[in-house]
């Protein structure tokens, strides 16, 4: 199946900072462009870190209150996270303020892979790199959500062509496929149970599919068949062998 790539939804005009960009200039760029974060690059356009609004807020929050008594502490006794926070609190440049190493994706990664990366790291935007690890774009959660704006007709056409015809070698009208608001319903009878499982699994992976309603039936339950017995039939197993 063909999955939409990050490169098809990313923004190519990227607001970026360099290591020596002053703190106030970073804040100005975020405000002027109404963005919540930006990448920091070196002279070779390679991403060395990222800055978020949270990083700037740490800088502001850690400014000492002139009316509070000074706290005595030893830097070597702080946790790593607390030491990093202390460094950010005194940051004057993007290089001192940024978080590293940066979490990135590549332009040829799928939208699904990028979404998983965002969820795993609890972030809202990702710098996008090319094959030479250079910055070529930025992708946000909003960009990734575009995949769910695919028309139902386009989703249905892909289910029929990629799943039924190409993967399972079935006539295009052998199974009834309907799509409503991204929810795909598969209705009909197949030869074997394993084929129904493949049809449902592949359909779930199609870009823009919200859910799959499985109304498929089968003539033969091959779930307990030996591998050599399954190989005699060939259709579903040929697809499985290609995974």
In the predicted model, the low-confidence regions spanning at least 5 consecutive residues are 230-243
Number of strands: 9
**Residue fraction in strands:** 15-25%
What is the helix tally? Answer: 10
Q: How helical, in percent, are the residues? A: 25-40%
Q: Kindly report the CATH topology of the largest domain.
A: CBS-domain
Radius of gyration: 25 Å
Task: For the record, give the distance between the C-alpha atoms at the N and C termini, rounded to a whole number.
Answer: 12 Å
Class per helix and strand makeup = alpha/beta
- What is the domain total for the residues? 2
Tell me the name of the CATH homologous superfamily of the largest domain. CBS-domain
